Amino acid sequence: MCDFFKNYYIYASCTDPGLHFYKIELDGSPQGACSRAPHERFIVKGDKCEHCQGSLPLRI
């Protein structure tokens, strides 16, 4: 089983997490990894996205 990942840390409230990630980190080792590695993994943080909070619709 492959254990080589590229972790994208994203905000839970983000409307475009593929663009607004706040950190990327490699996890595991490329030695012994499969040919399709590193695999993408998204880790969600509960804070508000600094990039799109102004573009979210206002709820009244």
From TrEMBL:
The protein's name in its UniProt record: Uncharacterized protein
